[in-house]
Amino acid sequence: MANAELDGARIDYDDEGNGPALVLVHGHPFDRSMWAPQVAEFRRDFRVITADLRGYGASTVVPGKTTLDVFAADVRALVDHLGIGRFVLGGLSMGGQIVMDCYRQFGPRIRGLILADTFPRAETEEGRAHRREMADRLVREGMKPYAEDVLYKMVAPDADPSVAEHVLRMMTGAPPEGAAAALRGRGERPDYQDLLTRVTCPALVVVGRDDAYTPVTDAEAMHAALPDSALCVVEGAAHMPNLERPEEFNSALRSFLSRLG
Q1: Rounded to whole angstroms, how far apart are CA atoms 112 and 198?
Q2: What confidence score (pLDDT) does residue 261 get?
Q3: Measuring CA to CA, which residue among 188, 67, 65 is closest to residue 136?
Q4: Which range has the worst mean pLDDT, 47-51, 62-66, 163-167, 202-206?
Q5: Number of domain units in the chain
Q6: What is the DSSP code string of 56-124?
Q7: AB hydrolase-1 domain spans which residues (predicted)?
Q8: Which domain holds residue 44?
Q9: Helix boundaries (H) for 155-226
Q10: Taking residues 43-69, what's their average pLDDT?
Q11: In CATH, what number is assigned to the domain containing residue 159?
Q12: What is the C-alpha to C-alpha distance for residues 13 and 2, in angstroms, rounded to an integer?
């Protein structure tokens, strides 16, 4: 574990393995430990970078509002800090939307995109209001009531108990003000649908078959929009296929990375 001061925030991160760089961005309201199965699998062949986003995990808690472009700028600052030029970049859920903003900001540095259980549309007015209300709830009540409400939408009801415990631990451990800031910022995200049609690197789209937040139809639409992409639907998984079904997720990811060379 290491940390770096980047744009006014301390970002805690792990940098494991050697080889081509693979940077993975966690979703809300998680931390970098969500990528543990992928780090264990790919650090043998790749330099795998995972970080706690600002406001999450062990990184600086930033209250107020944190927009996706700020998170994306942190990704760029971290890879600059680590001396990494070009790299493969992946993210899940909110992390996938951060990845899309990374491509918007510095696309030529990205060798390949991994978009897991995410979608590119801008938020609706109703959605923005809901995110503001949820942000206020997190600050008012803490993370536990929300985490218990959504646990079995994050993972399938029949998920391995250890996976459900890990996901619940991440959610209840998230700093409420940091998670609330991300919710407020995420409500202001731009629409990335046109951006996807202009992506010039290969992409992998992954989704859990039973994901209620980002259904398979969303993944199919991204796959159709991207000029060069593969689609993997993970059976028996909800919103966290990398944790719920790591063998299937890792197999799809390895095939994609092998293609990149």
Answers
A1: 13
A2: 79
A3: 65
A4: 62-66
A5: 1
A6: STTSPP--S---HHHHHHHHHHHHHHTT--SEEEEEETHHHHHHHHHHHHHGGGEEEEEEES---PPPP
A7: 20-246
A8: 2-260
A9: 161-173, 176-186, 193-197, 216-225
A10: 96
A11: 3.40.50.1820
A12: 5
31, 94, 159, 221, 243 from 6: Cα distances, Å: 18, 20, 37, 35, 29
Structure tokens given for 229: 């992409």
Burial degree of 125 (CB within 10 A; 0-12, 13-18, 19+)? exposed
pLDDT grade for 7, boundaries at 50, 70 and 90: confident
In angstroms, rounded to a whole number, what is the distance separating the alpha carbons of residues 218 and 62? 31
Distance, in Å, from the CA atom of 64 to the CA atom of 53, rounded to the nearest integer, reads 15
Residues 6+ apart with CB under 8 A from 217: none
CA angle 32, 38, 42 (to 5 degrees): 125
What DSSP letter does each residue of 62-81 carry, written as one string?
A: --S---HHHHHHHHHHHHHH
Give the residue-averaged pLDDT of 151-167: 97
Joined tokens for residue 130: 């809901």
Span 97-127, pLDDT tens digits: 999 999 999 999 999 999 999 999 999 999 9
Amino acid at site 242: N
What is the share, in percent, of the chain residues with pLDDT greater than 70?
100
pLDDT value of residue 206 = 98
Please say whether the dihedral angle defined by the alpha carbons of residues 237, 239, 245 and 251, taken in this order, is positive or negative.
positive
